[in-house]
Fold each of these.
Amino acid sequence: MFGEGIVSKSVSSHSDLIPGVYEGGLKIWECTFDLMDYFSEAEIEFTNKTVLDLGCGAGLLGIAALQGKAARVHFQDYNSTVIDEITLPNVVANCTSEGRRMGSGKDRKASKPPSKRPRKAEGSSDVLNRCRFFSGEWSQVSQLLLNSNKPCLKYDIILTSETIYNPDYYSALHDTLAQLLDRNGRVYLASKVHYFGVGGGVYLFEKFIEERNRGSFSSEA
Ligand SMILES: C[S@@+](CC[C@H](N)C(=O)[O-])C[C@H]1O[C@@H](n2cnc3c(N)ncnc32)[C@H](O)[C@@H]1O
């Protein structure tokens, strides 16, 4: 458990990011909540879509897609500890009937019934059959995803929040998006305008994408 030692490394370095060691997936970053609000406001449809939560951390975006009846949701994080200890348990807790029961207190000695009727949830094997979990660096993971998605399956929707903080990763991130996104697919990316101390941000990433593609990607603010 916690074989990568990222919890102690993060605590001892007083940092949420240790480049190449721990990339921040143990906490939920603010833009995830902004993107989830956007899903509701813009009524983004996940039904029957194939979705990738790239740099998923706790996996809230992928969980929203699962709850929105996506056909498949794949989760990727740099750190295996995050996938094993945070993402996967979070999917089980939020999307399966077993997890919902535990969350609603039915298995405890709670007296009050939940105020809202819980949404219909699936058994864990049904939900987990729609999910896959990957860890590792983007350039390696994209090859793994391409090779393991047989027949070669690209994503209708790629969700990614707070993943453009480090310009050193832009090339790998760009190539991953380009290789994995379906021709008619969409990337929903949430980010801070600028990441002080690391250097990345929306404008720098937009510029990078434009230079690499010269018009083949379209972006909306
Ligand atoms: C700041 S965290 C954001 C986590 C989550 N999306 C959120 O908003 O709460 C950045 C995430 O991007 C992923 N990531 C960053 N750089 C990466 C790289 N070079 N290769 C693979 N994953 C990377 C990490 O897995 C990490 O969880």
Amino acid sequence: MKHAQTALASLCLGLAVLTAPGMAGAQSEPYKVFDTKPVITEGPYLSALSDTAVSVMWMTDAPSHAKLRLYDGDKVREIEPQVDGLVPVGQRHVVTVTGLEPGKHYSYEAIATRVVKLKPYWPDKGLSISCAPATFTTFSPQQAKISFSVVTDTHEDTARIGRLMKMVDWDSTDALLHLGDAFHWVDSEEQVWSKWLRPTVAAMGPGKPLLFARGNHELRGAYARQLAGYVPTPEGTYYYSRAMGPVHLLVLDTAEDKPDDTNVYAQLNRTVPYRESELAWLRGEVTGNRHFAKAPFRVVAMHQADWGWLPDSGAAWTALANQAGVDLVIAGHDHAFSYHAPDKTHAYHTLILGQDQLARVDATDRTLTVKVVSDKGVTAHTLTIPVRR
Ligand SMILES: [Fe+2]
């Protein structure tokens, strides 16, 4: 892992920006540019890729501003984020790219420029650094097949992450899906990287996307409120859907496993209105999304297979999934494998992945297969679902 990080870091090159251009048409006096450039210390990696958008995130060792240079064949686009009209300056960088074309190859460079001092006028700047271009392919509603690899409940065990990541066939997988509880609780930025993202991104590289379904443990701890900044999504929410060829994937946030008024939360949780918003969004997806309507397979990926704690115990969610024709729920939370065939209550297959297992999902327009293998290389289960329409 250390080797991979070093190799990745070495791909980030200082740019020869030695002049201080000032602003075109503004005063001639330039701002100062010091001979210092940032180091990209983490990433870049692709978060929550879709058929038309992606969020790219990386870190630098010193305050910088960031942009993404996107190569689309001969065309070059630069995407620079702004918040309320200001370019963000910091060490954590997120650039969300929209307007991509489905099923298309792109390459990108993550670029960071040092900001030495944020003065009101003429802030002091530094030099830029750029990573070697990395390539990725957007999902497409039209692609003939899709493959993704799934892990869950890694719970800060970096040896476990290492074992599971080695089992992934990266050449043939389109995405890594993590079903939550990467942490016991979320405490700090360093923990987010050291206990999860660093070993994950080292294996995944800058060109494969991470899809993340938040677990109940991710709502806990002093840094829980900052976690979204490390698993950004173009939508800005933890729940989203993806049109991935034969699969319409619904990534849900099942939030906590106990009521908001449980004493341990000290009146700091309000998941009820949050889940109501999520359910309203889900209703819109299953009734209004064209790819959902025609996709051969509809898959829900979420942390708690029973939808998490809800005042109605998830009855409205189960009814909606049944009515919408969800084929498969893939979840974690139990730390042990189980499989439940469709029954009178649940009209869909439910596969709960264990903590030390890797699931590989492969789908064409005829068949969806999930193969679950333990970190000892033993096949725990193979589920094949034929298309029902
Ligand atoms: Fe959990």
